[in-house]
Amino acid sequence: MLEKFMMAFFAPEKIERFKFMLEHELGISFARAKSIATIAASLFSLAVTFAVFLAQGEIFLMLLAFFSAFACAYFLTLIFLGFLAERSLITKEKSCAEALMHASLMPEGTTVEAIISYLAKGNHAIAKEFEIAEAEIKKGADTSTALSNIEKRCQGREISTVVQLLRMAETSGNIKPAMFRDAANELLEVRALLKERTALLTIQKMTLLLSSMFLVPLILGLLCGITKNFDLSYLDVLGLNKTSQKELVGVAAVASNFYVVELAAIASIFLGIQENNAKKAAMYFAIIAPVAFVIFSYASSVKL
Amino acid sequence: MNPIKSYIEFKKAKAIESQLALFLLSLRSKLLAGLTLESSLKRLKQELNNNNMKWEISKILSEIEKGVDISDALMNAASRTRSLQFKKVLSHLNEIAKSGYSKRSDSLKLLCNELMAAQKAKMREYSSKLTVLSLLFVASAAIIPALWLAFVVMGSAFFALDINSSQIFASITIVFPSLSLAILLYIKESAP
Questions:
Q1: What is the reported pLDDT for A46?
Q2: Which positions in chain A touch B45 (Cβ < 8 Å)?
């Protein structure tokens, strides 16, 4: 059932990749990941239902809390496992420059197999991948195929660079340590540039998230709360129109609700554009809009 | 020239320029590893994430496959693009296609350093601009609407402002979101 649900949102290759990442990076099968998610979701939903019971909620509310908490916790657990697998892969990517630096220490004329074996014994995250490649070569696999398998397993830009370099060295038989050092420097330079760019995008992202999710609903909510709770009896004393004043306050509160949702939509679209992923815009909206709405409702109910 | 077409070309050139330094670094390492320019471009085409750059490289490679000389294919690409930086890179590649690439001259490294320095300068400029723009966005999205609300709700009672409820509704649901949208569009457009 879960797979059918996932198929509705993601391409089959992405689902297969997710399953493979869980198995390869975390050492857990998809079935086991589903069991972990079920256990975590059951515990969480029971805790939430118990909290509703203690708050003397109705049976309908308890059922609603149970099912919604279960669904949220189930998918969040799977997302968390995916995040852990992704993080493990990023660690491997980051260790590529280090691995290349190690490879550059080998004397000129060393065979690619010897370099693979040397890298497999290294103390860096990608060593595990070279260990698998070394085992494959020992079993009789072609060196080039074993290297390609690393690329297929990891699918990262930096890992791909390392593999291509080793494959080129293997094909040409021309292994120069300087070649690895140059490639390591290139990876570090590219990483520095990308980091700088990411930092800029993070400022944009945080400004959008913080303002649309917290700041705007909070300020507008507080203001709506203040105006709603005003004692308008003094208007009679001053001979001013109390009825139209009340109407204006009501319209302003409704318009502010619309504004909070509109801003959440604008922010979500921009975040989606920033990440070149339209699906993420919907995801951001699903997070920002409810949080903003809850903050706005809470802030407008606070009596100052 | 059609302004929409001109704008699209400008955006395309900007997208290419943003990836140029990374493209050159990868190309240089492939050339130093002993690959030919053509096979380096073929490998780079698979690695690239930027659609505009990928399209240009694919176009060059398809022309070569059709039998066009590599120098001509590179010059055709230079005549297609509006980016001066990309034109400069293509002219460099043309030289490499004619005389090969050697670690001794390493002209791509120099060009790459120049492009990276230019991009870093642009990023620093944008970063300082972004701080002000972020403040402006927060002000336009939160502070100005709040002040406006306070003003119209209270001011209408005391200052006899001629504002009705539909005007208040339109100002909050149309004017302020449009203002925020305009600032965000400006932030996006000025990104390096």
A1: 93
A2: none
Tokens of B46: 């698979």
What does the pLDDT look like over B78-95, one tens digit per residue? 998 888 889 989 998 988
Q: Report the complex ipTM.
A: 0.70
- The alpha carbons of chain A give a radius of gyration, in whole angstroms, of 28
Domains identified in chain B, total number: 2
Interface of B with A in 8-67 (CB under 8 A): 21-22, 25-26, 28-30, 32-35, 43, 47
Residues A252 and A166 in one domain: no
Model confidence band, residue A171 (pLDDT cutoffs 50, 70, 90) = confident
Q: Is the pLDDT of residue A239 over 60?
A: no
Q: B33 and A165: CB-CB below 8 Å?
A: yes
Of the candidates B105, B127, B157, which is a domain's last residue?
A: B105
For residues A114 and A168, the answer to whether their CB atoms sit within 8 Å is: no
Of the three residues B80, B105, B130, the one that is the final residue of a domain is: B105
Asked, for residue B151, whether it belongs to a domain, the answer is yes
Give whole-number Cα distances, B162 to A130, A207, A277, B144, B167, in Å.
76, 36, 45, 20, 10
pTM: predicted TM-score of the whole model, two decimal places: 0.67
Tokens for B24, please give them. 């050159």
d(CA A112, CA A181): 16
Cβ atoms of B150 and B139 within 8 Å: the answer is no
- Its domain, for residue A54, covers 1-88
Interface contact flag, B123 A251, Cβ < 8 Å = no
Q: Is residue B116 within 8 angstroms of chain A, CB to CB? A: yes
Q: Report d(CA A177, CA A188) in Å as an integer.
A: 17
CA–CA separation, B104 and A179 (whole Å)? 14
Residue B172 and residue B94 share a domain = no
B90 and B13 belong to one structural domain: yes
Do B124 and B74 lie in one domain? The reply is: no
Spell B26-40 as b/e; 16+ CB within 10 A means b.
Answer: bbbbbbbbbbebeeb
**Torsional class of A58: left (φ above 0), alpha (ψ -120 to 50), beta (otherwise):** beta
Task: Identify the top-confidence range among A97-111, A175-189, A254-268.
Answer: A254-268
Confidence of residue A236 (pLDDT cuts 50, 70, 90): low
Half-sphere exposure for A267 (CA within 13 Å, toward CB):
31
Residue numbers of chain B with a pLDDT score lower than 50: none
Concatenating the DSSP letter of every residue in A141-170 gives --HHHHHHHHHHHH--HHHHHHHHHHHHHH
pLDDT of residue A45: 92
The answer to whether residue B6 neighbours chain A at the CB level (below 8 Å) is no
